[in-house]
Amino acid sequence: MITFNLPVHKLTSFLRLFYCLGIFFTYPIMMFPVFQLIEHKWQRFFAAQEEGGRRHQMVFRACLVVVTGLIALMGMNVPNFGLYLSLIGSVCCTLLAFILPALFHLNRPGKRMEDDKKRIRADRLDKVIIAFGVVAGLVSFSFTLKGFFTEEQEATAKAAA
User: Fold this and answer.
1) Residue 84 and residue 139: Cα distance in Å, rounded?
2) Cα separation, 27 vs 95, whole angstroms
3) What does each C-alpha distance from 74 to 7, 33, 71, 96, 100 come to in angstroms?
4) Does the model's pTM come out above 0.85?
5) Which residues have C-beta within 8 Å of that of residue 91, sequence separation ≥ 6?
6) With left for phi above 0 and alpha for psi between -120 and 50, is residue 114 left, alpha or beta?
7) Which intervals hold domain Amino acid transporter transmembrane (predicted)?
8) Where are the domains of the chain?
9) With contact defined as beta carbons under 8 Å apart, do 94 and 143 qualify?
10) Contact (CB, 8 A) for 64 and 70
11) How far is residue 88's CA from residue 100's CA, in Å, rounded to a whole number?
12) For 54-77, what is each residue's pLDDT tens digit?
């Protein structure tokens, strides 16, 4: 969303281009764990057809890529799809990046065996990270909701005109 608010300039166009390229080239990295998990569940099916197992595996991966492409195409037809993604990201990404790791570290096993000063310092840092994640998530969530209402008001104004 930040790149859309930048002024129109050649540098901005290059920035958007490299941002898109970055997303394009990270897609295989993001999908690799998905492929691994799903293929592990379907391992019996692939092993049963040993001769064509590798071919079936490649077809299966191709089908997953096509499905994600279809989801992206459906997303293009949803008005304000970027805002929906931002809404989901404001909740899920702050949970996954800040809140849950610090919470798990705060409740780690073997915590009592650590030095008291180190433990207290680590616990305080975990609490600061959790607080930062909560604040960042709420700020992102509120700006996204503001974006929804702004888009809705602009659409209403265009319809009335």
Assistant:
1) 15
2) 21
3) 29, 24, 5, 26, 31
4) no
5) 137, 141
6) beta
7) 2-144
8) 1-77, 79-161
9) no
10) no
11) 16
12) 777 788 888 888 988 888 888 778
Helices (H), the chain: 10-41, 43-48, 53-76, 81-94, 100-106, 116-160
- Euclidean distance between CA atoms 161 and 155, whole angstroms: 10
Q: Could you tell me the two tokens for 40?
A: 């592990």
Nearest to 64 by CA among 27, 94, 100, 96: 27
99, 134 contact by CB (below 8 A): yes
Burial of 94 (0-12, 13-18, 19+ CB in 10 A): buried
Cβ–Cβ under 8 Å, residues 137 and 91: yes
The number of helix segments (H) and strand segments (E) in the chain equals 6, 0
Q: 7-58: per-residue pLDDT in tens? A: 788 888 888 888 888 888 888 888 888 888 887 777 766 665 556 567 777 8
Q: Name the residue type at position 48.
A: A
Q: Which two tokens stand for residue 41?
A: 């569940």
Amino acid at 30: M
